[in-house]
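Sample entry (421 residues):
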Amino acid sequence: MSAQSSHSIIATEWLNTFAHALTSANIEDVTSTFLPEGWLRDVLTFTWNSRSLAGHEKVAAYLKDTLSVAKVANVKLEEECPALTPQPSAMNPDWIASGFTFTTQIAIGQGYFHLARDVDQSWKAQIVFMSVKDLKGHEESGVPEQGIYDGPSRAWIDVLQEKRLKIEENPHVIIVGAGQTGLHIAARFRQMNISSLVVEANSRIGDNWRKRYPTLRLHTPRSHHSPTGVLGSPHYPELIDRDAFEGVTMHACNYRGGRPFSGKRVVVVGAGNTSADICQDLVIQGAQSVTMVQRSSTCVLSPKSVELTVTRSWPESVSPEISDFKFMACPLLFFRDHVRQFEKEAWDRDKDLHEGLVKSGLKLNMGTDGSGLASLLYKERVGGNSGKIQVKQGIEPDSFTKNALVFRDGSALPADVVIFA
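Predicted structure, serialized as tokens:
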């Protein structure tokens, strides 16, 4: 028997048991298909939320009032996409992973699972991912508009105006925010023929990027996206005598480039991606001095390390859509624990970069828990600054004087500009 056949048999047997438990709405039987610490990750299948739960008790509690209502049926192994058929798991070659499809009372779903051996050598789920792919009656057509409306006599601009008016008068969905996530959702709803109105505070689409500092960049070597946002509202620390400061204070979200600060003494509070970008820009634009305030420690990886880490999940040989799906199938807390095994490898790979940064005054970590990628700084920026960016480490800002930022230990940095990043 070939390895592929063996994988298919194991995956099929497990999925048949899991499917019977789901369709009969037997919660105890569902949890019995999981390892004791196994994860269920659900995106809209059982509730209108995204949830990740670990362990039989939490999974059972989550399904108590939702499993029977969902009416899961037609659970089958993925047959159409070869990249999702049963195969060794990318997370552990001793595991088996596969995609599957299913339906609920209102939706068409797609899932993915990772199987591992239990203590008795039986195959149980380490991770099961279930997500809604389409709503019944609103399936994505995938067919572009043909440009012909009620015969050749109607102009496209008239049809567009009519659609806009109808949606604005009675939208089925209102999406607040036209950022990456909002536009992604709106595009999906359009394909599903669900009328949606996007409400954006800025005057133009893309202004939430366009109005940022000019050296803003994506910090991933390949183009991929996540459907959930990661950043919140601007945070200004409460500092004493802020009004006494005669210079300029601002948040990084309002930074439009370093040219106005040429010849100025600038302090940047923060040591993440944004701070590194701004500090580099200030040096290039001729600031008299640039000091980065690092209050704790920072995870620093070179572009090469980031590319290696990312290509593990987004290999060139697999389409981005499939890699996105597989990555989304993994609960983030599980992923965090999983990547800790690569901590020593990450330290060793960027040893020269780290030594230089430590000499400049930065305190480093590989993620506060060893998982890395918590925040990134790149060698082309802080790591190669040749002393042009000073670092003040480990002390919290406390107050202002008219021309300085004062820290909790009583020390002070003369400043004309203070940027919170």
